[in-house]
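Study this protein:
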Amino acid sequence: MISEFSLVGIYLPPFFVYACLTVPVYAGVRFMLAHSGVLQWVWHPGLFEFAISLCLVSVLVLHA
């Protein structure tokens, strides 16, 4: 886990960096879920997508 990330003299928290790195992966997973029809079978698609995004960020934080 990194301590801080400096971008042009501005220190960013590590969670922000991890969240930004997760966005493309989340977009791909969301695309696959939408086109496979899985989102039609869940009770609350927005909540399901939020849970998926949290899982992806957690996996990145744990393995980085």
The mean pLDDT is 91. The first helix runs from residue 14 to 36.
